[in-house]
Every structure is written in structure tokens, then in C-alpha cells.
């Protein structure tokens, strides 16, 4: 219950919690769970590769299914700009930083390491962008394009990795480029996309035919969710094609006409599957992290170099490119959304998968490494693991820190306004109330009191009517002020997004005000001066006051109630 409450209140997702639990259970803490001890080193690498493959492909398939109908075709321009030039820019920038910081690594090897850090991780991105905070504060079009971009660039990491490996392993650059074009692009990327699209469309037609004939029910749709994802990556990986891109293409194709989404609407089974796989995967990552290898001076790896690398990646990998290109991305409206999109480019499961795939194609390193291929094999996963750990902490905790900052700011504003109201000379019966901030006063129409004067003088809470039909009550204290202010800010933001027409109020002429006050004095004479207040009343309970004192303070006061939250 405590973990659920922390996750709900602070918006901490399963990525951070799972990784932290894995570190605690791993060989560097409790030593209960150690993935690197499962058989030989090659067997351990193989297990890591397949675990990351299944979780990543399932997540990519889920993103493709959850996208709106024909989303990739309707938003192809923005996605192409966010994927191709942004990935290429980040690839070259990260490679240059690695080449400068780590002396034993040449530029070609730096390109191979940078290729592992280029794609945006769809698992972390989905956990962040799909959270309650993002749903409340991030526009839907931006959330969708970030999810689609994170899925597409994960599959397109293969060409960036393959050109680096071919240049490292092949003796001739011409042969390396030829293999890159034929194998890296045509066989892996293009064929993988075609396989995934064909399987998704074929499965969609088959499942619609079965539905028309009554061969399948609603529950069977959800059971096919995981089966098709596993089958797609099995076929693509068996023939050596891009299985990640195939899974994303299959998910997008099966939901292209919206039939699958309609049948699985409001079903939580697929979300439960994703959550279980994600939690298990990040527990595995937490136990897999090689903390002792983060300090390997013989390979040129030291903690301060890794920290500088991570900070530079956060600042330069995506943000500059998106700030330059966002004008051509219709889904991004201004530089703030471009900065947000550039910041939320986490690295996680995809980076570990690509790095493990690269190590499986490199020779086993000696101690010390004999050539550049062995240097790359010895340093690649260590650098990638540190960047992944930093990305999980920074990107996973960005929203919780922002949420805590907003709460602290709300409490500070509440305390300052309460103190100001206490130090202002006002009638005693107003000391227990809190004035509405000017922003809300301007956002509402003129207020007309429906309370009678004896009710006001006796302190009875009476409703006031606002022209936009919002009921407001008198408050006797400033309790729950922080939540009240936070609610007001949300209402103000909602009004700015969809402003309602309103009429400007005009001040009451002095003559009419004098006549109205004269009528009120005749109807409600001042209380008898000999009347004594009840001794049982506390100082916070309002005491009788003359009509003049009430008239001087009643018009500019707007009083709120924690029950109505308005």
C-alpha cells in the first residue's frame, strides 16, 4: 500500500521502482538475484538479449496498436523529421563526445557506442508519457507523436549500428558500405517492415472474418494481443530481419482501420501484461548493471568521464536538433514543446538490447584488449549501462520532482496569502476567510450576494451566485489551501484553453448605491447596542457588526469553500 501511495502521489512509475528493487536484490546489495551468474558469459549475454527483445517488441507492438487509425500515414511528415535528422544529429554528436572523453576508443568505435544510445526507449517513454501527470498536463497530439517516434527510431537503430560494425569488422570500406546498404537497409529495415505490415494486415482480416462468422468472442481478441507480437518477432528474428520494426509495423497495421481497438476497448488485460513485463525487465536491468566496471582506468573509463558524458548527452543529443526543426513538425506548436520533446528522450531497454546485440557480433576481448575490436567489446556495455542508469533516474524522476515543486510552491503561496490576510485591517468576521486571488477574480463574472444582511452579520454561510453558475460559500478557515490553489490553477488553465464568453460588469453608480444602502438600513436596522455576544463563542466565530462595516467590506470579497472546490 505504501508503494502504491508513493507511486500515485509522486507519479513515480514502474521503471524507477523496478530498477531500484533490482539493484537491492542484485549482486551489489542482497546478492539474491544475479543474471550474470547464469551459465557462461556468452549464455548470460544471450539471456539478456532475448529478455530485452521480448519486452521491447511487446512494447513496440502495444504502441502500434494504441495509435489512432492510420496515424502513421496522417503524421508521416512530422515523424520523419523527428526520427531521421534528429537521430543522425544525435548519433554524430554523441560519437564525438565519446571520442573526446575516452582516449582508447577511436571514432568508428565511438559511432558504434553512439548507435546504442541514439534510439529513444519506448518502454520508459510509454511509462512517462502515459502516466497520470502527462495525461493531465501534456497535449494529446504531443503524447502520441512522442510514442510513435520512440517506437520508430528503436527499429531504425539497426542501420546506425550496422554501418559502425561493418566499418570495424570489414577490412574494406567499400565492402562495409555495400553490406550496409544491402543487409542493413534492404534486408533488415525494409524487409522487416514489410513482414510486420503483411502479418498485421493479414491477421486483421482473419480476425474480422472470424468475428463475422461468430468464431471469436471479445476475450479472444485480447489473448491474440501477446500471441501476435511474439509470433512476429519470432519470424523476423529467425530470418535475421529487423524484428523490432516488424513488431511496430504489425501493431500499427492490425489497428489501421480501428476494428481491433473497438473490440479491445476498456480491456485491461493487455495493460496488465505490459506492466508485468516492464516491471520484470527493469528488475532484471537493476540486477544486471555492472557497477564495478564503472571504474576501469585501464580501459579509460572513470566515473567523472561517465558523468560528463551523461550530462553532455542530456544537453546535446536531442534538444538542439528539435529546437531547430520543430517548425516543420506540425505536432509541436512552440519551443517549449520542442524542449520537452528533446528532454524526454530516455535510454533504457532499447539501448541495452542494441549494445548486447553488438557485443554478440564482436570478438571476445582479452585482458588487456589486443586491438580496437576488443576495446570496443570491453567498453561498449559499460558505457551504455551507466548512461541507461542515469537516464532512468533523470527521466523517471523528472515528473515527480516537478510535481513536488508545484506542491511546495502551492503551499508557500497559501501561507503567504494567509499571513497577508491576517495582517490586514478587516472586520473580525473576515479573519477566518481567504480572499480569492486576483487571477480568479478576473476570470469570473461579477458576484451578487444572495445572503440577507442578518445572515451576514450572524456569520451564517450563505451561497453567492456567480454569473457562470459557480456556487461559492463562506470559509471559516484556510484549510486545504494548497489543494485549493492547485485546483484553481487547473481551472484557470482550462479556461485559457477553452474560454467562455462573458459580459463585463459595470460599477454601480453612487446614487443607486446610496438608495440601495438606505433601503437596507430601513429594512435591517442595526442591532441593539445592549445585545451581548455569547460567551461560548470563540474569537474565530463572527460577531455582530454594524451595517456600515459590513457594507465597506462585503462587495470586494469572494469566499470559497473546500466542499465545492470552486
Automatic annotation (TrEMBL):
GO biological process entries: intracellular potassium ion homeostasis; proton export across plasma membrane; regulation of membrane potential; sodium ion export across plasma membrane
Membrane topology: Multi-pass membrane protein
CC terms in the record's Gene Ontology section: plasma membrane
Domain Cation/H+ exchanger transmembrane: 7-402
Segments passing through the bilayer: 79-105, 111-135, 182-204, 225-255, 275-294, 306-326, 338-359, 380-402
Superkingdom classification of source: Eukaryota
Location, primary (coarse class): membrane
Gene Ontology molecular function: sodium:proton antiporter activity
Region (Disordered): 491-546
Subcellular location: Membrane
Keywords: Antiport, Ion transport, Membrane, Sodium, Sodium transport, Transmembrane, Transmembrane helix, Transport
Family of the protein in this entry: Belongs to the fungal Na(+)/H(+) exchanger family.
This protein's name: Cation/H+ exchanger transmembrane domain-containing protein
Organism of provenance: Phanerochaete carnosa (strain HHB-10118-sp) (White-rot fungus)
Amino acid at each position: 500500500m505504501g508503494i502504491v501511495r508513493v507511486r500515485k502521489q509522486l507519479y513515480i512509475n514502474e521503471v524507477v521502482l523496478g530498477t531500484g528493487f533490482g539493484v537491492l536484490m542484485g549482486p551489489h546489495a542482497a546478492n539474491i538475484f544475479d543474471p550474470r551468474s547464469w551459465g557462461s558469459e556468452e549464455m548470460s549475454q544471450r539471456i539478456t538479449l532475448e529478455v530485452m527483445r521480448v519486452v521491447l517488441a511487446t512494447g513496440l507492438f502495444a504502441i502500434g496498436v494504441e495509435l489512432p487509425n492510420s496515424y502513421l500515414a496522417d503524421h508521416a511528415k512530422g515523424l520523419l523529421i523527428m526520427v531521421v535528422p534528429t537521430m543522425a544529429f544525435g548519433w554524430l554528436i554523441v560519437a564525438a563526445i565519446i571520442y573526446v572523453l575516452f582516449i582508447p576508443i577511436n571514432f568508428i568505435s565511438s559511432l558504434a557506442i553512439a548507435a546504442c544510445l541514439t534510439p529513444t526507449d519506448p518502454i520508459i517513454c510509454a511509462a512517462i508519457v502515459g502516466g497520470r501527470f502527462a495525461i493531465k498536463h501534456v497535449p494529446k497530439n504531443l503524447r502520441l507523436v512522442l510514442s510513435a517516434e520512440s517506437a520508430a527510431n528503436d527499429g531504425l537503430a539497426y542501420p546506425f549500428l550496422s554501418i559502425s560494425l561493418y566499418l570495424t569488422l570489414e577490412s574494406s570500406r567499400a565492402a562495409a558500405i555495400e553490406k550496409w546498404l544491402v543487409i542493413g537497409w534492404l534486408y533488415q529495415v525494409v524487409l522487416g517492415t514489410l513482414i510486420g505490415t503483411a502479418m498485421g494486415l493479414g491477421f486483421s482480416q482473419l480476425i474480422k472474418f472470424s468475428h463475422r462468422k461468430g468464431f471469436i468472442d471479445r476475450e479472444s481478441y485480447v489473448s491474440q494481443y501477446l500471441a501476435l507480437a511474439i509470433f512476429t518477432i519470432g519470424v523476423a528474428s529467425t530470418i535475421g530481419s529487423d524484428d523490432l520494426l516488424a513488431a511496430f509495423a504489425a501493431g500499427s497495421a492490425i489497428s489501421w482501420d480501428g476494428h481491433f481497438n473497438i473490440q479491445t476497448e476498456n480491456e485491461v488485460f493487455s495493460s496488465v501484461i505490459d506492466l508485468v513485463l516492464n516491471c520484470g525487465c527493469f528488475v532484471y536491468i537493476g540486477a544486471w548493471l555492472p557497477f564495478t566496471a564503472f571504474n576501469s582506468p585501464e580501459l579509460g573509463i572513470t566515473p567523472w568521464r561517465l558523468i560528463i558524458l551523461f550530462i553532455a548527452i542530456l544537453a546535446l543529443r536531442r534538444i538542439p536538433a528539435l529546437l531547430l526543426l520543430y517548425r516543420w513538425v506540425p505536432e509541436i506548436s512552440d519551443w517549449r514543446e520542442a524542449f520537452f520533446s528533446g528532454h524526454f528522450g530516455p535510454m533504457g531497454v532499447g539501448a541495452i538490447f542494441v549494445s548486447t546485440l553488438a557485443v554478440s557480433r564482436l570478438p571476445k576481448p582479452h585482458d588487456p584488449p589486443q586491438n580496437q575490436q576488443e576495446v570496443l567489446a570491453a567498453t561498449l556495455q559499460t558505457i551504455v549501462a551507466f548512461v541507461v542508469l542515469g537516464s532512468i533516474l533523470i527521466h523517471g524522476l523528472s515528473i515527480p520532482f516537478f510535481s513536488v515543486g508545484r506542491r511546495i510552491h502551492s503551499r508557500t503561496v497559501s501561507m503567504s496569502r494567509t499571513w497577508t490576510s491576517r495582517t490586514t485591517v478587516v472586520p473580525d468576521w473576515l479573519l477566518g476567510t481567504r480572499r480569492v486571488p486576483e487571477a480568479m477574480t478576473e476570470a469570473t463574472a461579477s458576484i451578487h450576494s444572495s445572503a440577507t444582511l442578518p445572515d451576514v452579520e450572524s456569520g451564517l454561510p450563505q451561497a453567492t451566485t456567480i454569473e457562470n453558475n459557480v456556487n461559492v460559500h463562506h470559509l471559516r478557515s484556510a484549510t486545504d489551501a494548497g489543494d485549493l490553489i492547485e485546483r484553481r490553477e487547473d481551472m484557470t488553465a482550462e479556461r485559457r484553453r477553452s474560454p467562455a464568453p462573458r459580459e463585463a460588469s459595470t460599477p454601480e453608480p453612487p446614487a443607486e448605491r446610496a438608495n440601495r444602502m438606505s433601503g437596507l438600513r430601513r429594512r435591517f436596522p442595526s442591532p441593539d447596542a445592549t445585545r451581548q455576544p455569547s460567551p461560548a463563542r470563540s474569537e474565530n466565530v463572527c460577531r455582530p457588526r454594524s451595517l456600515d462595516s459590513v457594507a465597506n467590506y462585503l462587495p470586494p470579497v469572494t469566499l470559497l469553500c473546500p466542499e465545492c472546490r470552486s
